[in-house]
């Protein structure tokens, strides 16, 4: 990297001072940290704007194929630090802030996480946007600008409290309001039929409910050590700022909730849909994303080409999970109405343009919408879905005569429900699973009928994470360590990480790695102690933490029964019972970290959080055990918390029921930061193990997916028998109802409910449907192997270095290359150098405040 000049430092200092005076009326000495953060962001984004403009102009003049990525959620985290990293300006920024007597850490921490996502799906989408920009593909993302995100989580006495996530409380300097691109979306109304130029039925509406969607753009900056980095756009739709959406007449009539419904459509990600209003708002959200984005895609195409004749050749649309699956019906409708296409022609264009990523094998997560609800809210789209379904069912009958059972299973509309996955499977040219095992389950089980009819449509693109965010930025010491050993090509070519393996046996390098891990563990503890949000963080002069020499056992992900936080907690309960009986039973001190949110309407997940809390409190208050074992639940798990937790992790918990996790991305983030994985053969764990090789992947356990499938199908699983034949497991399970962990009746009721779900079952579910008891003994035995290896620190480090070295295939860059080649037929488009230089010259000519005095 070239040396930073005094001119560069003074130029940025002057720019920051300029914004402080002109936008906030403050000098650098009187500005608050919040004001300084905004001025600093404004100064930095000027450089970004040059490249953003050049990238967009290059794409427009190229008239080439472009990918439009639609996702209901993203999890970008904080943008400022990542943006500094991606333009390779961290050294410059540190010197600028030093000159201005400001702390980089303080400034970075002012920015809230962008609150437009929930879990792995949203974080994956953000990783992909980073890779699309870095690899310089012509791309454009669409999402929703949720006013309050999912929610901010607090834990009160083990109970999850959901607070609004006010990420927009401060002005957000990285978003740009684009009023010129606002569009209208129609809901409800009376259906009016007509025909187009080809006598195809066209459906219009009158007396409809019109909602205005206003876009806000975020620049997504690709990594670039040179100044020629690409910047692509993530466009987020909002209904909050448009007065058109507030229905004043209903307000004046006293119908306050109805008056504000359309204004609040983008208030919260995934409103609780356990009630009719929640279901209606969620469907409106999904169609808002689809309709607004498709209108914008068509408008962009028309602005470049003048007509839609080349639409199928230049437009590719990726449907990220079933949430935007209405793209199929809406694009068909728009082509029939505005392009005089027949149904067959419109479907052919739609199939050419669209592809669908499936992210789940859980049937309850494959969205289905009540037929009457779609008919009422989206009457035109409902009629189009009916026509598409009729055509599809006829095709099934033609290929499989006299097989009405298959027609019924594959139908898009069945028993009054509209199946979004089926709509996407029929209306897209490809569906991809996100790991090899996941794709196999889609082909053999979940979508078996579709695979038999359309085998060429099924493919796999294993998920990946961006090593720039999840190693270079969040773990700078480890990143510098790797670069010192193998050079810096790994930052953009992660396959180069394989060269780290040659150093894994060197004791000096192992010690260096362990020192970095120890430093990261200490940093995490200091952060948690300063946050004052950890339940029981300080009590009677104690804190909730052991020292950094203990094993940091990390389980961070959305709280869900199939992810089996309950199994981890039961193992912790077994450890507690062992240590209670014999304080010297374990050679290793262990601190178990949990982090994750439970969906607001998901009672079982909330009960698991409460159990973790009760167990944590019991251990903390027991002096005979608390010096060896602690449980810490970190509230409000988000990207910023993950950036601190992941570099500090020793053990990565990836223990989902085999056959249930589509892929996982936390497993990849933790592995590239030097954590060893304890995991089932599920999702991408399988491929990670293949890449690492079994020699360096020592903690695999549990039933395989086909075993679980067989037990489930044959109903041959009896957890009560396993428990009663295993005294250790029985003692742990009985503790759920023997009052040893509780302080009140509400806690007793919660823990008894968990006992019932494991041993007795419920009227709506068999006992232990996620096979916790079945795998618990194997999990316990494997955790003993963890401890045996952990007491050999240099050997542990050797394993960890081999794991890092084998993570090359799990970069988001690799995944995006696979999408581009196999699904989109897309090629990179670097910024046109002449275009970039022309914009730079124009900017320099006008930018007087960057020129130093003579």
- Which stretches of 5+ consecutive residues score pLDDT under 50? 850-854
Q: What is the typical, i.e. mean, pLDDT?
A: 94
Number of helices: 34
Shape: globular
- Measured as a percent range, the helix fraction is 40-55%
Strand content: 5-15%
Give a count of the beta strands, DSSP E runs of length 2 or more: 25
Main sheet summary:
10 strands, mixed
Q: What's the Cα radius of gyration?
A: 28 Å
End-to-end Cα distance, whole Å, is 28 Å
* SS-derived structural category: alpha/beta
Which structural traits does this protein have?
single chain, 854 residues, 34 helices, disordered C terminus, 25 strands, 49% helix, 6-stranded parallel sheet, alpha/beta, 10-stranded mixed sheet
What is the strand and helix layout of this fold?
Elements: H1 6-24, H2 33-62, E1 66-70, H3 80-86, H4 90-99, H5 104-110, H6 120-134, E2 139-144, E3 152-156, E4 159-163, E5 176-177, E6 183-187, E7 190-195, E8 201-206, E9 209-221, E10 231-238, H7 248-252, H8 256-259, H9 276-305, H10 311-314, E11 315-320, H11 327-338, H12 343-353, E12 354-357, E13 368-370, H13 371-377, H14 379-399, H15 404-410, E14 413-414, E15 417-419, H16 420-427, E16 430-433, H17 436-446, H18 448-453, E17 458-460, H19 467-473, H20 476-486, H21 507-531, E18 538-539, E19 542-543, E20 551-556, H22 565-581, E21 590-595, H23 603-620, E22 629-634, H24 639-648, E23 651-654, H25 666-672, E24 676-679, H26 685-692, E25 699-700, H27 705-714, H28 719-724, H29 727-734, H30 745-760, H31 772-790, H32 793-805, H33 812-824, H34 833-846
Parallel strand pairs: 1-2, 1-11, 2-10, 11-12, 12-16, 16-17, 20-21, 20-23, 21-22, 23-24, 24-25
Antiparallel strand pairs: 3-4, 5-9, 6-9, 7-8, 9-10, 13-15, 14-15, 18-19
Helix pairs in contact: 1-2, 1-4, 2-5, 2-34, 3-19, 6-33, 11-12, 11-14, 13-14, 21-24, 21-32, 22-23, 22-29, 22-31, 23-30
